[in-house]
Design a protein that fits this description.
single chain; 51 residues; alpha+beta; three-stranded antiparallel β-sheet; 1 helix
């Protein structure tokens, strides 16, 4: 399983973020909650994620 792409975070990735102005990112559930509040960002839970 991949790890979160955010700096200084070693949690397992649980969500793929589709970000219109940047590349898609794999992030943990905590970072996904923060990112999902931004306009245009679409969170897509990973099939094998343990949420």
């Amino acid at each position: 399983m991949a790890t979160c792409s955010e700096a200084d975070c070693e949690a397992s990735a649980a969500v793929e973020l589709h970000i219109p102005w940047d590349e898609n990112r794999l992030v943990c559930a905590g970072h996904a909650r923060v990112w999902a509040q931004k306009d245009g960002v679409v969170p897509d839970p990973l099939d094998d994620a343990d949420l």
